[in-house]
């Protein structure tokens, strides 16, 4: 196992590991097989979603890992078709039934879908779940600053987490700083740029060589040093172990800045227009 993973505090007595395992594109069987491997490598945060169709495998992997449930931090997300107060409560119950877990550590609204216009009401249902102690923390995903503001104005509650598409090519500096300054912890989805050409960028490969680390480790370290919580996905045990082995080196301030110069190299998804499970063919 690699060096100890630091945690970030979401709320009193709710700490979340600063790196987690993404599971998008894993089927039930893969998730069930890989989670014990990931747990042995040191992962305790696992990210799933109703939309991924693998909540059952995630629950199974946690149970078969040999590690007590309460040592994990399990996250799932409400899908687009379940916006609205009652549907959101039912969606949470379904996630519990499918995972076979008694509670989730963090439950999030997957996309705001502003044209549907139900995200505030949906958010209020999640806040009620947290108030009743049925979930430890509540959050959102892909919520722009304007969406976060509206939640705070209309419910008086800032989310514990906003999970957004973020990597050195899409650094979203203003967005992440806006959230962080209001106590909203930012998780990075697709933190490795989906394992594509980001990992071959000369600035990344030269820093990797200088630190004796892999390109993926240097990119993940960049997230950590910006106070972000990356959730890289891998289906390979060796890469799972590599991705969490990032707590024994530091990038200098200049090196962090050098990686941020990659900004603009990738087109991010647009939370204003993406309508999950309703109209588009996008499926995340
Ligand atoms: N909230 C949202 O709307 C949203 C959207 C998308 C994703 N997510 C979450 O974020 C997680 C991560 O995002 P992601 O899966 O899109 O992308 P990612 O974690 O940036 O990249 C995953 C890809 O990188 C490869 N990879 C992993 N480790 C590597 C390494 N050390 N060296 C080289 N390649 C490596 C993987 O291949 P192998 O599997 O073959 O190793 C996989 O193809 C998802 O799994 C999901 O949990 C959330």
UniProtKB/TrEMBL annotation:
Record-level Gene Ontology MF annotations: oxidoreductase activity, acting on the CH-OH group of donors, NAD or NADP as acceptor
Keywords on record: NADP, Oxidoreductase
Active site residues of this protein: 52
Entry keyword annotation includes Plastid: no
Sites annotated Lowers pKa of active site Tyr: 77
Binding of substrate, residues: 110
Region (Disordered): 264-284
Domain NADP-dependent oxidoreductase per the UniProt entry, residue ranges: 19-261
Pfam families in the record: Aldo_ket_red
Gene3D superfamilies: NADP-dependent oxidoreductase domain
Xref: InterPro entries: AKR, Aldo/ket_reductase_CS, NAD(P)_OxRdtase_dom_sf, NADP_OxRdtase_dom
Keyword set includes NADP: yes
Family recorded in the similarity comment: Belongs to the aldo/keto reductase family.
PANTHER family: 2,5-DIKETO-D-GLUCONIC ACID REDUCTASE, NADP-DEPENDENT OXIDOREDUCTASE DOMAIN-CONTAINING PROTEIN
Full protein name: NADP-dependent oxidoreductase domain-containing protein
Protein's organism: Streptomyces solincola
Lineage: Bacteria, Bacillati, Actinomycetota, Actinomycetes, Kitasatosporales
